[in-house]
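FORM 7B: Structural annotation worksheet

SECTION A. Query
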Amino acid sequence: MKGNRGRDTKPELLVRSLLRDAGYPGYRLHWKKAPGRPDIAYPGRKVAIFVNGCFWHRCPHCQPAEPKSHSDFWRRKFELNQERDARKVCELKDAGWTVVTVWECELRDSPSRIVAEISELLGSH
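SECTION B. Predicted structure
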């Protein structure tokens, strides 16, 4: 697991590229001043974006299979990941932020819809 990236993943880089192309630069990456350190943050608009990998965060859309070996370890690992994700979202919402979670599979299947949803939240340039 040491080799797995926590930042600058392919899905995260793609979302950042799509946002820049749509005319929304000026975001902060893993901004320490935002509760939960979202992957992408627009502090002035209080919009936080998490880009989640389907396997590690247990996507509710594509429901990836669980590993067959060491199932107790993986089940606990995934539970802790989901608890941490929920805690981060709650902290941000309590601080008045709008939170968007982009799933890897959604990004792969319909990137234009994802950008349209985020663009609507960000408003005018």
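SECTION C. Observations
The first strand starts at residue 28 and ends at 29. The first helix runs from residue 10 to 21.

SECTION D. Sign-off
Analyst initials: ____
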